[in-house]
C-alpha cells in the first residue's frame, strides 16, 4: 500500500486525504498549525490519521508521495528535505486530476480568476451540463472527485497550485493576465512567476485549447518562448481581427457558424476588466459547443462574486463598495478605474512587495481621502501623501468605516479595495469583507 502524506489540514488537504483513502492509499495528514473542527470531523469520519500543531518528520519523510497545500512555501525546510530525497511533492489539483476523466476547464491569472471561474460555471450549469466548481474557490477539486461524478469541472487555479503539477492537463485552459503578485515566493522575479502561470498549458496536446489575453503585455512577451501545443484562442479588446473581440460597444465571439454578438451594455458585469473576463468565458463556452443563445443569456443574468466590487449600501447619498478580494495592486487598479464618483479609498494590510505607481493616475483623479487599514501603513502614507492631503490610519474595521463615513460627502463612494493581503488583522479577505459590510450596516 502506497503512503500518501498530506501537508496542510485545510480545504485542499482534507479533500486530498479523503480521495487518497478512497483510492486505497495509506494516508497521513500533518498540519503545523491547528486544524478547524469541521475538517477534523471529516478526517475522523473517514478514519484518517492526522496530527496538528507539528510536523513529525519520521512520519512524513517515509512518504511515497506528498501533497502540499498551496499555502506552504516551496522554500520550507521540510519541503526541501523531501525533494532532496527524491519524494514526489505535488499539488491537490495534480493528485485529483489523476482520478477523473471528466473534461477540465482550468482558469488562472493574477486577477479576475474567481469572477471568470464563477461565470464559466454559471454558463455551463445554465446550459444543463453536469458540472462541478472547485479548485481555489469553494470545494476542493479532490473532494469533488472523491464524492461526486461530474462530466465537467470548472477550476480556479493559483500559481502555487500550478507550481506542483506533473501531468495535470486541462481540456480548456484560460490565462487571463499576468501582473506582479506573490513575488516574495518567486525570488522577486516577475519572469519566474509568469512561467508558473504558463504551466497551465505545459501538458496540453493539440486536442486541447489554450485561451489567453492578447492585451496583456507579460503574456504576449512570454508566449513566444513557450512551446504551446494546444489550439490557441486569443481574445482582445484592441485587435479587431481576433475571433474573440470586444470594443466599448459590442462583444463578438466569431466562428464558422455565425458566432455570437451582443451589446456591451447587456453584460451583467461592469468595468473594462470584466468585459475581458466575459470574453474569456464566452470563448471557452463556444469551444465546448454551448448554444449561442444560452451563452448570451448567462452573460446577461450572472450575479457578481461576493467581495469583488460588491455594492453594500447607499447611506446618506454615499455608496459603500466592498472589494475586499482586491489583495494586490492590479486588482485595486481595476476597482479604482471603474469608480464614477469622488472616492474615499480604504487601503492597506499585509504588503506583498507592492508598487503603487500604477495607481497614481486614478488616485489623483478620483480619490480625495485615504483611510489606511493595517498594522503597518508607512509605505502607503509615504507614497500617497504628496498627492492626497487627507490620510488617516486605523487598525480595526469599526474605526475604519466610521472615519471613511466622516470623510465622505453626499454623492461620494467609499471603496474598500485594500491592494494588500488581509492576514495582519483578519482571517482572510472574506472576513475583512464581512466585517466591512457589518460595520456599514451599523452606520
UniProtKB/TrEMBL annotation:
Pathway field of the UniProt record reads: Cell wall biogenesis; peptidoglycan biosynthesis
GO biological process terms, semicolon-separated:
cell division; cell wall organization; peptidoglycan biosynthetic process; regulation of cell shape
Q: Domain of life here?
A: Bacteria
Q: Which reaction does it catalyse?
A: UDP-N-acetyl-alpha-D-muramoyl-L-alanine + D-glutamate + ATP = UDP-N-acetyl-alpha-D-muramoyl-L-alanyl-D-glutamate + ADP + phosphate + H(+)
Give a yes or no for keyword Cell wall biogenesis/degradation in this entry.
yes
Q: Which residues form the signal peptide?
A: none
Q: Which UniProt keywords apply?
A: ATP-binding, Cell cycle, Cell division, Cell shape, Cell wall biogenesis/degradation, Cytoplasm, Ligase, Nucleotide-binding, Peptidoglycan synthesis
A Pfam family that this protein carries is Mur_ligase_M
Q: Where is the Mur ligase C-terminal domain?
A: 307-420
Q: What residue stretches are annotated with the Mur ligase central domain? A: 107-285
Mind listing the GO molecular function terms for this protein? ATP binding; UDP-N-acetylmuramoylalanine-D-glutamate ligase activity
Record's HAMAP family?
MurD (MF_00639)
Q: What does this protein do?
A: Cell wall formation. Catalyzes the addition of glutamate to the nucleotide precursor UDP-N-acetylmuramoyl-L-alanine (UMA).
Protein name, as recorded: UDP-N-acetylmuramoylalanine--D-glutamate ligase
Q: Which organism is it from?
A: Faecalibacter macacae
Amino acid at each position: 500500500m502506497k503512503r500518501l502524506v498530506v501537508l496542510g489540514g485545510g480545504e485542499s488537504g482534507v479533500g486530498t486525504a479523503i480521495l487518497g483513502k478512497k483510492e486505497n492509499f495509506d494516508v497521513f495528514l500533518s498540519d503545523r498549525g491547528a486544524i478547524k473542527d469541521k475538517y477534523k470531523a471529516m478526517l475522523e469520519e473517514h478514519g484518517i490519521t492526522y496530527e496538528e500543531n507539528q510536523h513529525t518528520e519520521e512520519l512524513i519523510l517515509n512518504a511515497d508521495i506528498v501533497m502540499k497545500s498551496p499555502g506552504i512555501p516551496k522554500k520550507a525546510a521540510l519541503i526541501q528535505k523531501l525533494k532532496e530525497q527524491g519524494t514526489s511533492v505535488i499539488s491537490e489539483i495534480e493528485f485529483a486530476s489523476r482520478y477523473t476523466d471528466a473534461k477540465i476547464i482550468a482558469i488562472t491569472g493574477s486577477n479576475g480568476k474567481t469572477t471568470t471561474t464563477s461565470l464559466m460555471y454559471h454558463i455551463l450549469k445554465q446550459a444543463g451540463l453536469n458540472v462541478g466548481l472547485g479548485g481555489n474557490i469553494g470545494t476542493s477539486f479532490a473532494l469533488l472527485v472523491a464524492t461526486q461524478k461530474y462530466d465537467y469541472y470548472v477550476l480556479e487555479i493559483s500559481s502555487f497550485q500550478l507550481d506542483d503539477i506533473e501531468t495535470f492537463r486541462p481540456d480548456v485552459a484560460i490565462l487571463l493576465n499576468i501582473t506582479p503578485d506573490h513575488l516574495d515566493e518567486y525570488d522577486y522575479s516577475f519572469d519566474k512567476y509568469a512561467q508558473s502561470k504558463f504551466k497551465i498549458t505545459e501538458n496540453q496536446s493539440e486536442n486541447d485549447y489554450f485561451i489567453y489575453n492578447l492585451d496583456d503585455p507579460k503574456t504576449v512577451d512570454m508566449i513566444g518562448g513557450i512551446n504551446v501545443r494546444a489550439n490557441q484562442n486569443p481574445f482582445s479588446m484592441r485587435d479587431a481581427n481576433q475571433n474573440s473581440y470586444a470594443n466599448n460597444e459590442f462583444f463578438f465571439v466569431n466562428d464558422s457558424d455565425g458566432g455570437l454578438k451582443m451589446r456591451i451594455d447587456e453584460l451583467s458585469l461592469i468595468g473594462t476588466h470584466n468585459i475581458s473576463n466575459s470574453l474569456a468565458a464566452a470563448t471557452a463556452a463556444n469551444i465546448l459547443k454551448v448554444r449561442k443563445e444560452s451563452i448570451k443569456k448567462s452573460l446577461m443574468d450572472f450575479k457578481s462574486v461576493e467581495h469583488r466590487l460588491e455594492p453594500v449600501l447607499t447611506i446618506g447619498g454615499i455608496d459603500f463598495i466592498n472589494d475586499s478580494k482586491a489583495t494586490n495592486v492590479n486588482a485595486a487598479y481595476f476597482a479604482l478605474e471603474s469608480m464614477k464618483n469622488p472616492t474615499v479609498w480604504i487601503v492597506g494590510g499585509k504588503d506583498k512587495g507592492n508598487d503603487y505607481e500604477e495607481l497614481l493616475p486614478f488616485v489623483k483623479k478620483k480619490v480625495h481621502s485615504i483611510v489606511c487599514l493595517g498594522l503597518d501603513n508607512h509605505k502607503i502614507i509615504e507614497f500617497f501623501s504628496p498627492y492626497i492631503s487627507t490620510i488617516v490610519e486605523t487598525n480595526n474595521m469599526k474605526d475604519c468605516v466610521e472615519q471613511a463615513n466622516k470623510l465622505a460627502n453626499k454623492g461620494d463612494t467609499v471603496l474598500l479595495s485594500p491592494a494588500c493581503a488581509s492576514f495582519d488583522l483578519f482571517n482572510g479577505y472574506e472576513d475583512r469583507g464581512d466585517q466591512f459590510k457589518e460595520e456599514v450596516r451599523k452606520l
